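Summary for the steering committee. The consortium agreed at its last meeting that each partner would contribute one worked example illustrating the joint modelling workflow. Our contribution is presented below. We chose a case with several input lines so that the handling of multiple components could be demonstrated. No manual editing was applied between input and output; the record is shown as generated.
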Amino acid sequence: MIDIKLLRSNSEMFYKSCEDRGFDTSILDQFFDLDNEWKNNLKDLNNKKHNKNSITMEISKKIKAGEDIEDLKKTVESLNIEIEKLERRQNEIDVKRTELLRLIPNLLADDVPRCFGDENNKLVRYHGRAKVFSDDIKYFIENSGSHDYDEIDYRPKSHVDVITEMNLADIERAGKIAGARFYFLKNRLFKLELALINYAVDFLSQRGYTILEPPFMINYKSMSGATDIETFKDTLYKIENDDLYLIATAEHPIAAMLQDEILMDDELPIRVSGVSPCFRREAGAHGKDTKGIFRVHQFNKIEQFIFCRPEDSWDFFDELVKNSEDIYKSLKIPYRVVNVCSGELGNLAAKKYDIEAWFPSQGKFREIVSASNDTDYQARSLNIRYRSKEGNKFVHTLNSTAIATERILVAIIENFQDRDGKRIRIPDVLIPYTGFSEIGGDDD
RNA sequence: GCUGGGAUAGCCUAGCCUGGUAGGGCGCAGGUCUGGAAAACCUGUGCUGAAAUAGCUCGGGAGUUCAAAUCUCCCUCCCAGCGCCA
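What follows is the complete predicted structure of the assembly.
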């Protein structure tokens, strides 16, 4: 949620921010209409209450003095009726006003590119040495800014073909029991996933992150504080008969973990890494990536999360992105970093960097990491504050993927397969975790 | 699931039986004093509001009453004991 005081005092910058996001600014107009009514109504209400309070005090005195109070009682009774009416109206206004306020997106950071469409995201940097099929070279150079690649004269097999041929997953039977976008992971592919999880856990705990496994379901209050209406609409699964939602990322329970708390200044920053399955309905993704395990309703993810003082949050944004980049450098997966443009940002984020890996079979860069600075937006909705010398202030929250394992399995299958698509080499840093160095090799 | 105890401001605590509009301590901030600091003393300390000698705030909600932290009912969470349980 945005700061209502800031909105009142600096409305122009919110109008500008909403326009840059392609967001309907009539919501701001509606907000100000309601807010004015709210202020006027509050004035009336307070006057009436003041009146009532002084009469009540008078009654108390008269009782002690043994005087008659019946007339005063009647006055208070009629005041109560008026007060109740005004209060009911004030509540109505308040509910509507909060509803609108929650829809208004966060202010954009200055260096977010003002444009629409993912194709206009701004390239920040590229790293790695990619295998690029001849037909894709032009696309690769345009989208990476790099001429440093290995040209190959064949298109690597898609992960869907590889996992089917090598008996590494069963998509069909998963479809039978659960529907599309589910999977059974099998054999060495599943061991590789466990290796990725353990690798990420070790990697982040060495960098000072507290590792935790969160609840996989959380209640409405927590979820609505941690997310926005878009997430609710398109991505969340609701549990029947209980006030519970399946999490779409460990970000949700981690963010909500500290709701309604006031932290001591020296407790900050708090670095957390959560490991969890993620459940997403993927409404609005019909027809996209329908096969395999690239886009699924359930996947596992290691997430990074930071609670910090406002003045530090941009440094921590860099830290999160660096952690993720260091993971992909160590895995030797080629990637680029993009600064996501204003039209494609979520409501909570002031700024977002995506990391996109090179997928040689698809001949494309595809998102594997999303790192956001939500500034005080999420903390205000969740009411997470800390004690500073200037009083209690909202913390800033940031989140970033470390490893979304199913996607990285695909990245490994596409980038590390041999020419025939019959063997997959395991990235060196993972071998201590897998206990084998390839899938489809002689020892398999 | 059952029985009992509990939830008061950043933290701790009084008030609840017997209804009259939240008192104290700690911490923090400012002030007096000092060369500077400590101590001592004074003032302030949540939310709404541009502000008031204004309103709100005692886990949440409803009720009784002119008036509810206080009485009644419902709910949530925490603690103890009992039961059930992978």
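Residues 15 and 26 of chain A are 9 Å apart (CA to CA). The two ends of chain A are 52 Å apart (CA to CA).
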